[in-house]
Amino acid sequence: MVSELWRRLVVTAAVGGLGVGLVACGEPDDNAPHTGATTPKAMVLRLATTDTISSLDPAGPYDVGSRTVQANLYQTLLTILPGKPTPVPDAADCQFDSPTTYTCSLKEGLTFPNGHPLTSSDVRFSFDRMLTLKTPGGPAPLFTSVTSVSTPDELTAVFNLKAPDARLPYLLTTTGASIVDEEAYPVKKLLDSTAIGSGPYQLTAYRPGESVTLARFAAYKGSRAAQNDGVQIALVKDAVALDQAMGKADLAYRGFTIGQLDNIRSMSGVQVIESEDAVIQFVAFQMKSVTSRKLAVRRAVAQLIDRPALVKKAYAEHVSPLYSMVPPNFGGATDAYRSEYKQPSKAAAAAILKAGGVKGPVPLTLGWTPTRFGPGSKGEALELKRQLDASGLFRVTLRSAEWPAYQQLIRSGVFDLYLAGWTAEYPDADNFLAPFLGVSDPFPNGYRSAAATKLLQQERVEQNGIKRAELLEQLQGVFAREVPVVPIWQGRLSVVVDHEVEGVSGALDPLAFLHLSGLRK
């Protein structure tokens, strides 16, 4: 059992017999003078995760596992701290000087671990390089509004924009906006063998697919100074390996099954800490389908879905019902679908179909994929089918395929509607809405809406936070009325922690990765 392993490790480490104890222990220097005082042990934390790391380079693939490492090695101009919904300074203080000019004033004395100074030239280089490389799956598409970065002096970087973009402060908090050392990074290719950033940690060892070792960067100047001396991250294969690795870890996350988490909660010596994150699951309608193009069909489906029943049956309530495409922990969120459809109702759904001239039962093909969105996908598809069939208004046929064949079937229009998930790329409500409007279009469902597009354009240029939130709320209302998608649930990032570890809640980023600097024991 996890807690039993932890207790055994603590006891063994206490008698000096285990080199992989919970806290890294240095051997005493016999040549040092003995003053009678105890030398403080280095506070090195050990983590285990099923995350995979595609790239150490922030210009590389923008996956969650890579972000966790990058966010702790590199510094960004701005950051978002726990409990603070808006960006605050990290490497710089930034402001709009005009709708298309965003100026960042760097802190004095910033350096990289190799001793090189961090200046505005490094900022310009980092963005020019990232936008030039355009790595597939990388962050470059997030910064299409940036035309150039100018550097009037060593401490000033000015972002020049094609058009006003109110998202920019949020985009500058992402790992894609990390600052790299222009003297160490190649212009035309990624650097994956090492990493040189000015973040809370520096990289001391990296074994791809196996482990990452970080040490506190003492010269870091920013909002996330490390409260520990370092972190050792073990990269494991699956839930079984994660469970086994916990005997050597202070903290383990991402990859536990629902059953494992339930068992762990009953154990002593450990705790499960959860935070709602930026992972959402939804049903999308494919507008190539004649059936799905009927607004009454889409609205009737939205009227019938019982989210609490679904998350209980398919996920044992380890996820949260979601009533808007924007989760409630993001600015501008509103429960638009709850407001529009109130409670699940067969009578209301029947009235919607009747008013739309649609006779039931309506045949629907619902697509789902077995592994891409987690082990609960099959149960979710079965429960959706059960709910819709039980109304007598629909007759649902399930069809599944593995990724990427599933993507091809979506594009070809085989499904009338399909299950999919989304993890936000930047911490702003816009990123939960724009992907369904053909703006970045990772979900090719063919939805086009003049009303939604107009609101999207307006919120992107509105720099008044209150007015922008109102526009985002209106946009969510359009989604609820026109129903290109139906939000189902919001995920949670679950972290299993030794009871002595503190600061975990503040380490959980809403984009589903961890900031390690606040952890301590």
UniProtKB/TrEMBL annotation:
<feature type="domain" description="Solute-binding protein family 5">
    <location>
        <begin position="88"/>
        <end position="439"/>
    </location>
</feature>
<comment type="similarity">
    <text>Belongs to the bacterial solute-binding protein 5 family.</text>
</comment>
<dbReference type="InterPro" id="IPR030678">
    <property type="entry name" value="Peptide/Ni-bd"/>
</dbReference>
<protein>
    <submittedName>
        <fullName>ABC transporter substrate-binding protein</fullName>
    </submittedName>
</protein>
<dbReference type="InterPro" id="IPR000914">
    <property type="entry name" value="SBP_5_dom"/>
</dbReference>
<keyword id="KW-0732">Signal</keyword>
<dbReference type="InterPro" id="IPR039424">
    <property type="entry name" value="SBP_5"/>
</dbReference>
<dbReference type="GO" id="GO:0043190">
    <property type="term" value="C:ATP-binding cassette (ABC) transporter complex"/>
</dbReference>
<keyword id="KW-0813">Transport</keyword>
<dbReference type="Pfam" id="PF00496">
    <property type="entry name" value="SBP_bac_5"/>
</dbReference>
<dbReference type="GO" id="GO:0030313">
    <property type="term" value="C:cell envelope"/>
</dbReference>
<dbReference type="GO" id="GO:0015833">
    <property type="term" value="P:peptide transport"/>
</dbReference>
<dbReference type="GO" id="GO:1904680">
    <property type="term" value="F:peptide transmembrane transporter activity"/>
</dbReference>
<dbReference type="GO" id="GO:0042597">
    <property type="term" value="C:periplasmic space"/>
</dbReference>
